[in-house]
Amino acid sequence: MTAAGTGGATADLLHTISDYSANYLQDPRTEHTGSAVDRSELRRRLAAPLPRTGDDAETVLNHLIAHGEPGLLHSGAPTFLGFVMGGAYPVAMATEWLTSVWDQCGALYATSPTASVVEEAVSRWLITLFGLPSHTSVGITTGCAMANLTGLAAARHHVLAGQGWDVERDGLIGAPPPSILVSRGCHVTVHRALRLLGLGGQVQPVDTDDQGRMRLDALETALAAARGPRIVCGQVGNVDSGAIDPIADICDLTHDRGGWVHLDAAFGMWAAASPQLRNRVTGIERADSWATDGHKWLNVPYDCGIAFCAHPVPHRAALRTGADYLTPAPDGGRDPVDFTPDMSRRARSLVLWATLRHLGTDGVAELIERCCILARRLAAGLANTDGVTVDNDVVLNQVLVPFTPVDGSTDAEHLARIVAALQRGPVGWASPTIWRGRPCLRLSVCNWQTTSDHIDACIDAIVSAHRTTGAAARTTTIEELV
Ligand SMILES: *Cc1c(COP(=O)(O)O)cnc(C)c1O
């Protein structure tokens, strides 16, 4: 079926990777989660000039494995608590591989009927899972950043069309300026999307409360003072605290003024898929557009995000690309290219299809609920210790931990040493943030493999880093990291 003669050679290489993968995935990483080598070493190994003549494929692969692996961050480990990352279910990883083997251009029905129909199926499943309106349109993106861009492009089209302005035809110059009210708790990628859409200058921040939730009185004032069409950006799952905006009230206030509500719900969206957590996101189905991620909490490999829009017409109007050479899907079927900013892309929906099909609705709910329970266990275990507090209400999977040093160093110095110790070790890799002016350890539980034993080991590692770093104040050297 594939190009004649390549089957055997490809199969040999895939066997090499398969054998390597089995070993790699089994390694419990008892030495360290972070990179084993520094940057100059990685450059020496990997960044030499491109030679004139290439090497055979097996040699190249072996070189990449030997020299690339030492610089990996093992973020798929069940005791990894950094950023908001998650790992990858075996079924997701295997389907990702299948996606490469099939190598479909997922842009059009014409370029991959299977990818088109699988996207239709996945779209339907996700709309049902999150309880969104049944007519919601869906685009499968590289991540939540592109999903934010997608949702806000639809918003821009819609609110300007309401003023009789066709932004796709006439551009922004001369358009009635919209007011974009953005929670101070919103993610940076919301701001970048607005900048890319030419709307950066229209952004007005809306104040938040002590958890990072949009304040309704501030929104009400801003909406009343705003001129022109309004777009309100809310946050479902603050990137630090996990806090969730009062979505139902935001939708009421904004819709009363004829505005559009866009929600960045990169990980918070998944609470909607849990019967136990659904009441934390009450009203989520009333927004106009949503952006979320597959590659964080659903535990599929990078890249995978999802954009949803309650208004399919402006969604397609903003992103559609027609050309004589692009055969449209028959009978109004799905061309994935019409719903996201990219054109040729992996058949990204395959991994979503396989992972959702593997988990079922119960499995998704169980994953999300388990991570939230473990985050509360983590918070409770840490808050038990002298000099350690938890600074946020643990409503989802995020825990923010400031430390009080006992040796006279500043909070920031003490935290930097804790972070260095955790990043040097095998358990509890985490990174810092500043929360309400105070340096905090930022912890996130989103890996499908994490158990209460893993969380207890992380608590021990964090408490021990806190207790011992105070005694031995010094800076970590590269040698120690290796
Ligand atoms: C990660 C994240 C994003 C950006 O998503 P990508 O998948 O990295 O593109 C946006 N918002 C929040 C809250 C996030 O955590």
Question: Can you tell me about this structure?
Answer:
By secondary structure, the protein is of the alpha/beta class. The protein has three domains: 33-70, no CATH class; 95-356, Aspartate Aminotransferase, domain 2, CATH 3.40.640; 361-481, Alpha-Beta Complex (Aspartate Aminotransferase, domain 1), CATH 3.90.1150.170. It is built from 15 helices and ten strands. It has helices at 6-26, 39-46, 57-68, 90-102, 113-130, 144-161, 167-170, 188-196, 216-225, 247-256, 312-319, 349-383, 411-424, 452-471, 478-481; strands at 137-141, 179-183, 203-206, 230-235, 260-264, 289-293, 305-309, 398-401, 431-435, 438-444. Strands 1-7-6-5-4-2-3 form a seven-stranded mixed beta sheet, sandwiched between helices. Strands 8-10-9 form a three-stranded antiparallel beta sheet. Strand 4 (230-235), helix 10 (247-256) and strand 5 (260-264) form a beta-alpha-beta unit. The longest helix is centred in the last third of the chain and has 35 residues, at 349-383. The two termini are 47 Å apart. Residues 472-482 have low confidence and may be disordered. The structure holds pyridoxal-5'-phosphate. Pyridoxal-5'-phosphate is lined by residues 84, 143-145, 187, 189, 237, 239, 264, 266-267, 293, 305.
